[in-house]
Amino acid sequence: MIGQTVYTDPKEITNQIGQFFYSNSNDSSLNPDFLKFKETQEMITLSSPTTTTSQGSILNDPITMSELNSSLEGKKKHSFQVRVNEHMSEKFDLENGVPQGSPLSILLFQAAINNLPDEVSHPVKSIMFADDTHIYLKGKNIKSMTRQFQDCLNDLSKWCFHSGFIFSPEKTKCIMFTKKKQISKPKLFLGNTPLPFVNNIKILGLIFDSKLTWKPHISKTKSITTKSINILKTLSHAEWGAESNVLINLYRSLVRSKLDYGSICYSNANPNILKTIDVIHISGLRVATGAFRSSPILSILSVSGEPPLHIRRIKLALNYIARILSSPENSTLPFLTQIRFANTFCSNPNLKKTTGFKDVV
Predict the structure, then answer these.
(1) How far apart, in whole angstroms, are the C-alpha atoms of residue 359 and residue 314?
(2) Of 112, 155, 280, 314, which is the most buried if we count CB atoms within 10 A?
(3) What region holds the Reverse transcriptase domain (predicted)?
């Protein structure tokens, strides 16, 4: 104790943190039933093609998962340390999982979760990107949809038990896309944990709201790009600042790239909401070109060589569609080639048309 303050050795802190991570990675943290199942599965022989040549038969001899794991690890076991400032903890062995930064980590992880979509039963569908998994269901009967969704969640919980993976209930959220103003939210459970329903959800950098107005996403984009424009203002000093062509390139990298991301999705938002980022576009170009506040917008666009954002969104959408149409194996091709809901849009002109309907039809 120093004065009235309790002093803890930083080395002890790092060791305690390392011990916590170690306790979560070793076999003692696993459920006994799953540990028994894991040991059984690791001794199952992996199927592999065989050949008639002596060399081929040796290379393709059946092996078990345990032998494969040992060959990947080699004689050296993976270990980790915890660092707090300049203090390092002791070394702890990594008994389960894959080492961070290993070239095989991504491949092994993808192979381990490859059969996850098979557990999602019809009519529930799934979308996966790396370790982000989304399941969704479309319908009108809330009670029926809730029952089907809960059955799917139960199947996924069973898959977790057999595979050893764990879904984080704290990171799992639900959202209901509907235009109804008042609707009762169903109760869904992941294991014993109730899942919360939210009004906005972030998927791969895009913020989806329950009404699909895209207002939260565009507001977030505005706040992020405003900070980037402040960087341009700093670099555009009249005496020692960068030249206009350099600032325009910086604008395209720091600001326009953020405005372009997801523009194919939010391009059908209300025009008044889209004007919010139009202001950002002109403000950034005004700083990059050194134009006055009174300079006409058309002059700024002409000097910078940048089109208006609504023209650029159309260009990006057409480039995306052309790239999809050139790849027959692309999974999104049927959504563009099949003209769906044409009668719906024709009978109700006020409906917001999808990207495929607007740019392909």
Answers:
(1) 8
(2) 280
(3) 1-194
Q: pLDDT tens for residues 170-222?
A: 888 999 998 888 788 889 998 888 999 999 999 889 999 999 899 999 999 99
Sign of the CA dihedral running 289, 290, 293, 294: negative
Calpha distance 138→123 (Å, rounded): 8
Reported as a single tens digit per residue, the pLDDT across 341-355 is: 666 667 666 666 665
The continuous run of DSSP H or E covering 275 comes out as helix 271-289
Rounded Cα distance, 198 and 201, in Å: 7
Q: How far is CA 43 from CA 30, 65, 116, in A?
A: 18, 6, 22
Enumerate long-range contacts of 137-144, CB under 8 Å, 24 or more apart: 142/183, 142/184, 142/186, 143/186
User: In whole angstroms, what is the distance from residue 123 CA to residue 141 CA?
Assistant: 13
Strands 87-88 and 92-93: unpaired
Strand, coil or helix: what is 27? helix
Could you identify the residue written with the tokens 């004007």? Answer: 275
pTM of the model: 0.70
Hey, is 92 helix, strand or coil? strand
